[in-house]
Structures are given as structure tokens and as C-alpha cells.
Design goal:
This is Adenylylsulfate reductase, alpha subunit. GO terms for molecular function: electron transfer activity; flavin adenine dinucleotide binding; steroid dehydrogenase activity, acting on the CH-CH group of donors; succinate dehydrogenase activity. It comes from Desulfofarcimen acetoxidans (strain ATCC 49208 / DSM 771 / KCTC 5769 / VKM B-1644 / 5575). Helices cover about 40% and strands about 15% of the residues. It has helices at about 20-35, 75-85, 90-110, 140-150, 225-230, 255-260, 275, 295-310, 320-325, 335-355, 355-365, 435-455, 465-485, 500-515, 525-540, 550-575, 595-600; strands at about 5-10, 15, 40-45, 60, 130, 155, 160-165, 170-180, 185-190, 190-195, 235, 245-250, 265, 315, 375-380, 390-395, 420, 520-525, 585, 600-605, 615-620. The protein binds flavin-adenine dinucleotide. Flavin-adenine dinucleotide binds near residues 16, 20 and 46.
Length: about 625
């Protein structure tokens, strides 16, 4: 085994991940921890200033309920989320986040985030729930508050967490390695809050060659939340609900500002608005098809129908939207020119705030948005329970709202004692986005401190287990060292597989059998069974993963994490015998929605001893809020 130093850290509450959710947890937990003598430690695989999905910045905060002023009610938000998720959402969790999210946004503003203001001082809304920000430095501002709250001496950056450590049926800590130094880190904790984001790169991306790595979802989150919690034995929910964003093609630029702020239309190549021409299809998905706004997956589906019928490509009609907005100034040439310049600047800024690559693509293809439409397309699938997907852990609901079926302990605790989840890591509570993830992190952080206070005993960490895990984590380096002389070309060796090649295999498998881009987002029981069969061979070969450096070691583990994300997804898509989310995926063998049998959560648990999966249906309970 490579001779890595082992660094041991004993704490009370361990926050894994330094993204939006755990930045929220850090601020809140630090406050309650101080009052109760609890130690809080945070570990992130990257540097918190620019880690996670908000790394590049955002141009809008997507959840602001504005309920204190009576603009919206909490019930409005819950109804919106549930309809968007085709009836499958936990009212208690969505409600709990909604009632706390506005205060989180006010904290962001206090910490220095510039939020666009109207002349009367109110926030500029992009849509009903979204507000506009100058968000290039969003993550830096939020991370600064978290760092100030915890103290940098309690933060470990560039440490990739691989596995949970258990003491019987409860969590006891986590183990990982530094991505910069030859060190293995063992964190011993009474409670752990997992918030390692969602997953990208499970399915084959549209981008290839030198564009590989360009995806809608930033490449940092690779299924660690799912792997970590699954391996700890935590029950998962909604793992079939992947997210497919329709975005500006190839640069993956955001469409929200275009649809909501600029009131743009999207059309097929013949100028037809597919939301109009295909709207008859929505009746098949009532009552969700009748919802306003139409659920994200159904909006996708209407566009996909045109692409399948050969009416593509689809276009965002930017030139038309800008002309419409400027038209009311057309009688005053000076005012018209000024407005056009303003709109043009806003259009570019929208991309420069969060998807710079799209602005570069516009520049490279001589695209002036005021003159020419831009192509939009459905991206490959991602797992992002905080956005318009729903995958994540099945967590206990808030005491004052959750029905007995959804409550078994501390708020946001998973089914494993002492293990909490928030943000992308907690399921069935979509549409929390950056602000709601931060708010949910605050909720979970406070709850986890309470757990530490009421369960003060430090769980036992077996040194033999630590040694076994250490050997398992470093094995790819050992595999490489033992076999590197076997061939003259490092890249070709019958005794090992490098993580990049392994990733290609996983992505091809998911793409072709589990409904990726190539399969037109369509799958079936037979295809999923084949996927599981091939996954067995892939998992066998994961034992042969090889790493030449610490960076490659991280890549190995990222792909093992992705593999478990893939596995739980396949099992759950197979279990749900209907097509509830067309536009995210279609079951060719079961093409209709079946509300009678499947208006329920599909939950999955892996037995840590046998690796067997157990699936169960859990009723969706509509609360009178
Ligand atoms: P993240 O913020 O992604 O944080 C995950 C953290 O886990 C990171 O710090 C990462 O480094 C760490 N991590 C991962 N694996 C490991 C590991 N193995 N060990 C240790 N640490 C690990 N929201 C909005 O409000 N408005 C928008 O306009 C908007 N646009 C978006 C656009 C895109 C492309 C994406 C992907 C998301 C967007 N969101 C938006 C949603 C928002 O970014 C997420 O809801 C939010 O970031 C989720 O928070 P999180 O803490 O769960 O995950």
C-alpha cells in the first residue's frame, strides 16, 4: 500500500461539501454550536470560494417567495413545486424550506450580494419566484460568511471524501484523501451532514473531443452525495427523477432570463411555437398538463416531439424578443437606440454572469442576439435534487408539519442515525435552487447540532475498519505501480483501466440503455435489464482502476461514485412502471402516466452487507397547508 500519512480529526458535527447547502449549515450550526459547546468541522473536495454548482456565479436567485409582504403564500410555492414534479413532492419539506428561504436571501444581501432593485427599492423579479442578481461573485460572498462563522482552522479544503464510517447502525464519520498531499483524512464525528451536490457525467454528454467536460452542470459534483449516503445504508427517494435542461446548444447558456425576463418564444425550424402546436398532448398528463407554468419535463417533451418529427433544430427567438421589448420606443429614435443597447448588454451579461462559454460561442459564431436566433437543445441527463430533478435521501420532516409517515427523528436526518442531508443530497423537495439549498442547509445544520447535544457519546471508530478503507481508497495507485511496466504504452494495459476510459464505458452504457441523448431519452424494462447486466461487468473492472497521481485517484473515485448513482437510477426507473416524466425519460414499454398505481414516491435502499436493493412505494400525502 502507498505510504500515505493518516490524519485524524475528531469533531462533533462534520459538514461534508462546501457548496450552498453546507455554507448555510456552517452559518447556522456555528451559531447554535457556540451556545452549546459543539465543535463543527467542514470538509470540501475543492476550495469553498469557487466550489459546487454556483462556482461560476449565477444571474438569478431562483427561489424567493416574498411571503412576509403577502406577495405569495407558502402554499402557493408548495403547489407550484408539486405540480412541476407531476404530483411527486414532499409538502412538508418544500414548505419548511419556503418558510425560511426569504431570510436566507436577506442574509445574502446583507453580506454584499448585489440584487437588482426597482425604483421603489423592491427586488427585480425575473419570474414569479426568481430575482435578478449581479451574481458573478455569488459563491465567494456566501462562502466568506461560512468561513467567518466556522473559522478557517475548522475547514479542510481539497480533501475528497470517499466513504462513510459507521458504528453499527449509526454514522461515526468519514474517510477521504487530500488531492494535494499524500495524506488520508479520517474524520470522527457524532453527526454528519452530507451535502456533496448532485451528479454530472453519469450519462454521455453531447460534447466530445476538445469540448469534453463542457456540460450544463459544472463538472465538480460527481454523485458523492448518493454514493456516501447509499453506502451508509440511507434510503433514497425519487432517484428516477433526473433533470434534463433545455439550454442554448453547446454552450449550455441559461434560458430563464430569455423566457421570463425577455418574454422570448422558442420555435421549431419552421417558426412554429411548439408549446402551442403540440399543446393537445398536455391533456394526456392532466392535472399536471393543465398547470401554469407547465411542468419543466412536459415543456421539454413538447419540444422533443418536434425534434423527433424532423422539425428541428429548435431556436430561441432572441431577435424577435429584443425587437418586441424595444418596439414601444420606436417613435423616439434616441430612446430606441438606448433601449436596444441596454437589452443587448443584458443579454450578454446574463451569460457572462454564469455561463461565460456561451458568450464565447456567440462571439465565435458571429451571433448578435438582436439579429439572429440561437439554437436550443435538450442536454444530457443530470442528477440535481435541488433544481428541477428530485433525487436524494429520504429525510425526516419538520416536527410541526410532517405527517407521522414522514417523520422519524431530527429534521433532515436520513434513515441512518446521525446522518443528515441537504441541498442536492436530500430528495423529494425540488426547486430549492441556490437560496433554498442554503436555507435547507441552515435547517439541517441546526437540527444536527441538536442531535449532537442530545446524543453526546462519541461513536466508536474501529481502527481495523479504517485500515481496510485506507487500503481500498489507495488501491488504484497500487494497481498502477504493480502493472505499469507490463506494456510500453501507459494507456494500453490489460491489467488496469484508467478512470477516463472507465467513465466512457459508464456513460455509453447509460446513454444507450438508460435513456440518454443517443436513445432519444427513451428506455424500457428490457434495456434497463441489459444495463444492469453490463453494470456488473463494469463494477468488476472498477477493481482494476489505476491512478498515476492524486488527481487521477480522485477521478477513479468520482467514477465509482457515479456508478452507484447510475445503479440506483436504473433500479428506480425500472421500478416505476409508467411514464410520469416524459421529457426527462420515456418508458417505451409503458408510455402512459398511471396515477392510480404510481402517484407515489419510489424509494430504494441498498443493503450494505449484500449489495441487494430493496424498492418500496411510499404514498404522497397532500397536506392541508
Ligand atoms: P453544491 O452547491 O453544488 O455544492 C456541492 C459541494 O460538495 C461542493 O462544495 C463540492 O466541492 C463538494 N463535494 C462534492 N463531492 C465531494 C466529495 N466527494 N468530498 C468533499 N466535497 C465534495 N440556482 C439558482 O438559484 N439560480 C440559478 O440561476 C441557478 N442556476 C443553476 C445552473 C446550473 C448549471 C446548476 C448546476 C445549478 C443552478 N442552480 C441555480 C442551482 C444551485 O446551484 C443548486 O441548487 C445549489 O448549488 C445546490 O447546493 P448544494 O450545496 O446541494 O450543492
Amino acid at each position: 500500500m502507498p505510504n500515505f500519512e493518516t490524519v485524524e480529526i475528531t469533531t462533533d458535527l462534520l459538514l461534508i461539501g462546501g457548496g450552498m447547502a453546507n455554507c448555510g449549515a456552517a452559518v447556522e450550526a456555528a451559531y447554535w454550536a457556540k451556545k452549546n459547546g459543539v465543535k463543527v468541522t467542514l470538509v470540501d473536495k475543492a476550495a469553498m470560494d469557487r466550489s459546487g454548482a454556483v462556482a461560476m456565479g449565477l444571474s438569478a436567485i431562483n427561489q424567493y417567495v416574498n411571503y412576509a409582504k403577502g406577495v405569495n403564500t407558502l402554499k402557493d410555492y408548495v403547489e407550484y413545486v408539486k405540480k412541476d414534479l407531476m404530483g411527486i413532492a414532499r409538502d412538508d419539506l418544500v414548505y419548511n424550506i419556503a418558510r425560511h428561504v426569504d431570510s436566507t436571501v436577506h442574509l445574502f444581501e446583507k453580506w454584499g450580494l448585489p440584487i437588482w432593485l426597482n425604483d421603489d427599492g423592491t427586488y427585480v423579479n425575473e419570474g414569479r419566484w426568481q430575482i435578478m442578481i449581479n451574481g458573478e461573485s455569488y459563491k465567494i460572498i456566501v462562502a466568506e460568511a461560512a468561513k467567518n462563522a466556522l473559522g478557517t482552522e475548522n475547514i479542510y479544503e481539497r480533501v475528497f471524501i470517499v466513504e462513510p464510517i459507521l458504528d453499527g447502525d449509526r454514522i461515526a464519520g468519514a474517510i477521504g484523501f487530500s488531492t494535494r498531499e499524500e495524506k488520508v483524512y479520517v474524520f470522527k464525528a457524532k453527526a454528519v451532514l452530507a451535502a456533496m451536490g448532485g451528479a454530472v457525467g453519469v450519462f454521455k454528454p453531447r460534447s466530445s473531443g476538445e469540448g469534453l467536460g463542457r456540460s450544463w452542470y459544472p463538472p465538480f459534483s460527481t454523485g458523492s452525495s448518493t454514493y456516501f449516503t447509499v453506502m451508509a445504508g440511507a434510503e433514497q427517494t425519487c432517484q428516477e427523477v433526473r433533470f434534463i435542461p433545455i439550454r442554448f446548444k453547446d454552450g449550455y447558456g441559461p434560458v430563464g432570463a430569455w423566457f421570463l425576463l425577455f418574454k422570448s418564444r422558442a420555435t421549431n425550424a419552421f417558426g412554429e411555437n411548439y408549446m402551442e402546436t403540440n399543446k393537445g398532448v398536455l391533456a394526456d398528463y392532466a392535472p399536471y398538463g393543465d398547470a401554469k407554468p407547465i411542468p419543466a419535463n412536459l415543456r421539454n417533451y413538447l419540444g422533443m416531439l418536434d425534434v423527433s418529427a424532423g422539425k428541428g433544430p429548435l431556436f430561441m427567438r432572441t431577435e424577435e424578443a429584443i425587437a418586441n421589448l424595444a418596439s414601444k420606443y420606436k417613435d423616439d429614435e434616441k430612446a430606441f437606440k438606448k433601449k436596444m443597447k441596454e437589452l443587448e448588454a443584458e443579454a450578454w451579461e446574463d451569460f457572462l454572469d454564469m455561463t461565460i462559454a456561451q458568450a464565447m460561442l456567440w462571439a465565435a459564431t458571429n451571433t448578435a442576439p438582436e439579429e439572429k436566433s440561437s439554437e436550443i437543445a435538450a442536454a444530457e441527463p443530470y442528477f440535481i435534487g435541488s433544481h428541477s430533478g428530485a433525487s436524494g435521501c429520504w429525510v425526516s420532516g419538520p416536527r410541526d408539519v410532517a405527517p407521522a409517515e414522514y417523520q422519524w427523528g431530527y429534521t433532515n436526518m436520513t434513515t441512518v442515525k446521525g446522518l443528515f442531508a441537504a441541498g442536492d443530497a436530500s430528495g423529494a423537495s425540488s426547486h430549492k435552487f441556490s437560496s433554498g439549498s442554503h436555507a435547507e442547509g441552515r435547517i439541517a445544520g441546526k437540527s444536527a447540532v441538536r442531535f449532537c447535544v442530545e446524543n453526546p457519546e462519541q461513536p466508536n471508530v474501529d481502527p481495523a475498519v479504517v485500515e481496510t478503507l485506507k487500503a481500498k481508497i489507495l488501491k488504484p495507485m497500487e494497481v498502477y505501480e504493480a502493472n505499469k511496466g507490463f506494456t510500453t504504452d501507459d494507456e494500453i494495459n490489460p491489467n488496469y483501466i484508467f478512470p477516463k476510459m472507465y467513465m466512457f464505458r459508464l456513460q455509453k452504457l447509460m446513454d444507450e440503455y438508460a435513456g440518454g441523448v443517443t436513445a432519444n431519452f427513451t428506455t424500457s424494462k428490457a434495456l434497463l435489464e441489459k444495463a444492469l447486466e453490463l453494470l456488473v461487468f463494469l463494477k468488476e473492472d472498477s477493481e482494476k482502476l489505476a491512478a498515476r497521481s492524486l488527481h487521477e485517484l480522485m477521478r477513479c473515485w468520482e467514477n465509482i461514485h457515479r456508478t452507484v448513482q447510475a445503479e440506483v437510477h436504473i433500479h428506480t426507473v425500472m421500478f416505476r412502471e409508467e411514464t410520469r416524466f416524459p421529457g426527462y425519460y420515456m418508458r417505451a414499454d409503458l408510455p402512459k402516466i398511471n396515477n392510480e398505481d404510481w402517484k407515489c414516491f419510489c424509494n430504494a435502499t441498498r443493503n450494505p452487507q449484500t449489495g441487494e436493493w430493496t424498492m418500496r412505494k411510499v404514498p404522497v400525502i397532500d397536506l392541508a397547508l
